[in-house]
Amino acid sequence: MKLNTLEELYIDQLKDLFNAETQLLKALPKMSTAATAPELKKAFDEHLAETEDHIDRLKTIFKELEISPQGKTCKAMTGLLAEGSETISEDADPCVKDAALIAAAQRVEHYEMAGYGCVRTYARLLGHDDAADLLQTTLDEEGSVDKRLTDLAESVINLEAVNPAQDA
User: Fold this and answer.
1) Superfamily of domain 6-167
2) The dihedral sign for the CA sequence 56, 15, 77, 4
3) Where are the domains of the chain?
4) Residue 45 and residue 33: Cα distance in Å, rounded?
5) Per the confidence metrics, is the pTM higher than 0.90?
6) Is-contact 21 55, C-beta < 8 A?
7) For the chain, what is the radius of gyration of the CA atoms?
8) What pLDDT does residue 168 have?
């Protein structure tokens, strides 16, 4: 696909994010099931509901643009989620697996934050102010999830993974 304008790039990147969120919607329940720490399961479950909201916001933007959100596969998310699947299937101590799940989830969050930051900026430059506000809301939520995962890792999960045999 040839991108000649910022508007075309904006739409292309929105489609990429829509596909990424759709893929994540299918992966989060698996991550929640694989997690053993109740706080981590809760974080994944709550982010699942937020991800549904992210998809709805993107649908709103696509409706305003009068275009379909379909037509692009986010290869980066495919790869990140493949790595997450490997983590899920690892034979690991539960505490260590939880730490690995957080690492995998944060890679996803950082990818999403980069994408939403870019499209939010494009939307503002292109005069799509309502879309920019919706994208900022999603960007803020992605940042909050990342912070929550960091706090959970640093205060509980990683500490338990330091000496997992002691917890058994």
Assistant:
1) Ferritin, core subunit, four-helix bundle (1.20.1260.10)
2) negative
3) 6-167
4) 10
5) yes
6) yes
7) 17
8) 46
